[in-house]
Amino acid sequence: MSEIDPVDLARALIRRPSVTPADEGALDILEAALAGLGFECTRLKFDDVDNLFARIGAGAPHFCFAGHTDVVPPGDADAWSVPPFKAEIKDGRLWGRGAADMKSAVAAFTAAAGRAIASNALTGTLSFMITGDEEGPAVNGTRKMLDWLRAQQINIDHCLIGEPSNPETLGETIKVGRRGSINCWLTVMGRQGHVAYPHRAENPVPALLRKLLYLSETPLDDGYERFDPSNLEVTDIHIGNPAHNVIPEKATARFNIRFNPNWSGAAIKAWLNDQIDGLATELGARYELKTILSGEAFLTTDTGFIGLLADCVEEKTGRRPAYSTSGGTSDGRFIKDVAPVAEFGMVGATMHQTDEHVAISDIHQLTDIYALMIERYFMRYGHAPRRSGTGGRPA
Description:
The protein is of the alpha+beta class. It has 2 domains: about 5-180 and about 295-395, Zn peptidases (Aminopeptidase); about 180-295, Alpha-Beta Plaits (2-Layer Sandwich), CATH 3.30.70. About 30% of the residues lie in helices and about 25% in strands. Strand 4 (about 90) and strand 5 form a beta hairpin. Helix 1 packs across helix 3 (about 100-120), helix 3 crosses helix 9 (about 360-380) and helix 7 (about 305-315) crosses helix 9 (about 360-380). It is elongated, with a radius of gyration of 24 Å.
């Protein structure tokens, strides 16, 4: 069994333009690499999304690496200094869409797994849970893979996600939780009419604006352990009125709330209805509120697992990583229901940007961190009884 070069594997993955939900052969490349290491690979396709679960070893403890091979669109390819899917190396960096988020981390963990297998470090199960639906709706990826694992009675003990957790320098940050996210659409209904005869109409726009201003200026909380205060941000106002002399019939606004564990999705929705009901009564306005919960807030409290990861990062980088819950959502919001989860990957300074890139040295260093983590994980948990509970603290 030859050793896997993580840079070569990352380049091969980047060359596949796997913009969600397309795979374009990215999982074929990863599956071939893992099968060559002895992993049992299972492709799981849900609707138009391809996913991969691969495992080697047997029994507890079960250490899972989770990630994704889908990427966001590159935008205007001509704006890139290198073609976004050519995976060029220049100036000591690997350039291309997905270099940071997160094909380099997938390649690094694959190479690290190869080292662990070669050194007989596994005393349990090591697995990969890789989706093609993380950057998209996140409906036919990790959530359905977890359902499949439950049906197969496959239990995960701990999970490491390779999201780009470091803002500027490798070793800065481990993500130990995430805020919840709820998308909201608020529509205020009025009565259409001529602008010259406002008494014969009901203009919904002022009522909508007053509601939005009230909601955006009302604090939800003062923060939570390791979390910033929850926040509401208006993202769109739509009226769709083509005429300049017509009072519209309705007006709709879209907003998002990122919330900490002071709240659940249900509590947020109840709070919104309470706030809007009072103002609607005052204004004499009718409204409809639609919400879609993207994920609940959570904080991983398994200090042994998090501390082990931090020790490995510090040993290989010389930096003690901070514990953070900042940033957007990740598939950790699903995995936390079955196992304690942490996120550590590449530097994310250029993720989703034109000219996304990572340092070649960081890919090799991340591989070293992952290899040490696999070795230390099975040394610590290899003869311990299977844990009970998830170790996460959901809202």
